[in-house]
Design a protein that fits this description.
The chain is of the alpha+beta class and 671 residues long. It is built from 20 helices and 9 strands. A hairpin with a 2-residue loop joins strand 6 and strand 7. The radius of gyration is 44 Å and the shape is elongated.
Length: 671
């Protein structure tokens, strides 16, 4: 039969009333009857508030999320704990105090033997392992879930099936016990009991793992923190040796309060979307929890050590108590410092924070790394999720990931000059505290000086690089221009003279025409030399533009190559180019055409100019190509250098089916 969400929510909503009814019925049933001392033992009394707490929490969860696995787990464990209390009292009255007075007492005694295993143990194992989404943190936690399942299943099977006297009511035998398995069941129960504590500890550990994986400052991390504190305190209470039977009332009250926190923490964490900041609670819990563990361990160790010379009497206990008491204050101080450092960084030790900043700055590989060093030092010193350092020039460095939370801006200055600012996000999506801001102010002074010094060093180095580069680039320009400009022109003249020599006898008129053209080319070469001397760029670029200048010079080179056909094509429309890019494109194209004419003995050569995001210069010929293993000549090196110096790239590769292909990709703006 299908059960709708409304009916499921209604059934879950009845769980607190059912638990309360069972507990009240247990109280009423036990009145006027001498109950055993174990009924008022701490381990039994704790079931009352925990049962009611888990019932309320589970019901609230299922009211909003009817299919929530943890909600049903909490409701089920709460009912089991309340049923355990009622079944015990009912069976005691019907089997021990007043035999035969109550019907079904034997059956209730059998239920009392095992129902408790479905209460506290699953709540403190699976209830933590599956928190908060009903799934394990990862597949690696499957063994922990298996251990918890074995613990609960082993206790349930052993207590329900053990033959002979019932566990809690030995006056009657187990009606469903398996004959001859008493020893086996005791062994299973003995082995399963410590597994419950292992599962409990694994649940606490899983919360720590989830907390570390959760985004810093997120709601999930704060939800997990709240439950982690409560469950860790509960685990500490379980592991502390309180002994059996009656415990002092202060101890009993403390135990009840601690375990009541667990369902309360779960309910607040799951149902509320905005939690109060619990950093102080977590801080104090870690400090005093660690202090308690340290003192207990020290006391136990001293009692054991003093028992040998002093015996196991009062003297050893007094000595251990005195030493442990003397160690409380120093231990508390050291633990407080360690916890504060883990949660808040070095805000309580400004000297350490400044020292960390200095160390980071000294370790910076270059002056430009100072911004990143400042951001990292501030973030690490204060455990901040995000820190950014910005300068008026627009240079920025960040450490961490921004979450969009409230940001605080702190200006950085040096000698009255604004040199930048620091932008920080507080922990847990909260604004930085007053103590955080105090340390940030202390760090701002050395940070401002470091950022200013780094800016000066960067500016000085950049100026030095520009001076050196300008000098070297001028030398390279002259070297390349002599090779790429005058060289191809003279090569064209030489090839033209060869053509004149071939036509001088057969066609004197054509020879005169060629000589006139060669004279003009020679005159132009002289003009190019003059222009090189004065540092001018090729005039054809200004007169004809890049395509026209390349076409003109390529045709001149083709004249002296016994009829090499040169085509200059433009795809689309070339945008306006800056001078450096235009000159580089021209020089690369002409050098590639000259190489095809002089060295490759090409018959055709194609120059393709195009622009998208980059200017593309492609020169393809059908000549001999470049021999494998040949040494790179000055021309090829010059083409690559021209492209590289303006931020571009030039590649030379074989063309198909033969020849050479030169491709240069140049930025439109070389600045």
């Amino acid at each position: 039969m299908h059960v709708g969400p409304g009916l499921r929510a209604g059934l879950a909503g009845a769980a607190p009333a059912v638990c309360a009814a069972l507990l009240v019925a247990a109280y009423v049933t036990g009145r006027g009857v001498d109950l055993p001392e174990q009924v008022t033992d701490t381990q039994v009394l704790v079931l009352v508030p925990v049962s009611l707490g888990f019932a309320v929490v589970g019901a609230l969860i299922l009211t909003r999320h009817p299919r929530h696995r943890l909600g049903w787990l909490y409701v089920g464990t709460a009912l089991a704990m309340a049923a355990a209390v009622f079944a015990f009292v009912y069976a005691w009255r019907g089997l021990v105090a007043a035999p035969g007075e109550l019907p079904g007492a034997l059956a209730m005694g059998w239920v009392s033997a095992w129902v408790w295993t479905l209460g506290f143990a699953p709540a403190m194992t699976f209830g933590l392992l599956l928190y908060p989404d009903g799934r394990l943190p990862s597949r690696r936690w499957r063994p922990a879930a298996a251990v918890s399942g074995l613990a609960v299943g082993g206790l349930l099977f052993a207590d329900a099936s053990a033959p002979g006297p019932l566990v809690n009511h030995p006056v009657a035998d187990n009606p469903l016990g398996i004959p001859g398995t008493r020893g086996l069941m005791e062994a299973i129960s003995t082995a399963a009991q410590p597994l419950v504590f292992v599962g409990f500890a694994a649940g606490v550990a899983s919360l720590v793992v989830r907390w570390r994986r959760a985004p810093a400052g997120g709601i999930e991390r704060r939800q997990i923190s709240l439950l982690a504190v409560a469950s860790a305190l509960g685990l500490a209470v379980v592991l502390l040796p309180f002994g059996s039977g009656h415990s002092p009332w202060p101890v009993t009250a403390a135990v009840l309060a601690v375990f009541s926190l667990v369902p309360a923490a779960i309910g607040v964490a799951i149902l509320r979307h905005h939690l109060y900041d619990i950093d102080v609670v977590l801080n104090r819990s870690l400090v005093y929890g660690g202090l308690t563990a340290a003192v207990v361990g020290l006391y136990a160790g001293l009692v054991w050590a003093a028992a040998w010379p002093l015996g196991t009497g009062t003297a050893a206990s007094l000595l251990a108590t005195g030493v442990a008491a003397a160690a409380v204050l120093p231990l508390r101080t050291r633990l407080q410092r360690a916890v504060d450092r883990a949660m808040y960084g070095e805000r309580g030790d400004p000297y350490a924070a400044v020292s960390r900043l200095t160390t980071r700055l000294q370790a910076a590989a270059a002056p430009g790394d100072a911004l990143a060093a400042v951001a990292e030092a501030v973030a690490v010193s204060l455990r901040l999720p995000y820190v950014a350092v910005e300068t008026p020039a627009g240079v920025a460095a960040a450490y961490g990931s921004p979450s969009g939370a409230h940001r605080h801006v702190l200006e950085l200055g040096h000698q009255g000059e604004d040199v930048g600012r620091t932008v920080v996000e507080g922990r847990d999506r909260q604004p930085p505290t007053a103590r955080d801001l105090a340390l940030l102010t202390d760090l701002a002074r050395p940070a401002g000086a470091a950022v200013h010094a780094a800016a000066l060093a960067d500016a000085l180095r950049a100026s030095q690089r520009r001076l050196v580069q300008a000098r070297e680039e001028e030398r390279r320009r002259l070297r390349r221009d002599l090779h790429d400009g005058l060289g191809p022109t003279l090569a064209g003249v030489a090839l033209g003279l060869d053509a004149v020599a071939g036509t001088l006898v057969t066609d004197p008129e054509q020879a005169r025409v060629l000589l006139a053209e060669l004279k003009a080319e020679t005159t132009e070469a002289v003009d190019d030399v003059r222009r090189l001397v004065y540092g001018l760029r090729p005039p054809a670029l200004d007169e004809l533009g890049l395509p026209g200048a390349v076409r003109q010079q390529a045709e001149r080179l083709a004249v002296g190559n016994h009829g090499m056909q040169v085509r200059v094509e433009v795809t689309g429309t070339l945008p306006r180019l800056d001078a450096a890019t235009e000159v580089a494109a021209y020089r690369i194209a002409i050098e590639a055409v000259a190489n095809a004419a002089r060295h490759a003995h090409a018959r055709t050569c194609r120059v393709l100019l195009g622009a998208d995001e980059l200017l593309r210069v492609e020169v393809t010929d059908d000549g001999d190509g470049i021999a494998e293993g040949a040494r790179t000549g000055v021309g090829l090196t010059a083409m690559r250098e021209r492209a590289s110096e303006i931020g571009g790239d030039c590649t030379v590769s074989p063309a198909l089916p033969n020849g050479t292909r030169v491709v240069a990709l140049l930025p439109m703006d070389s600045r």
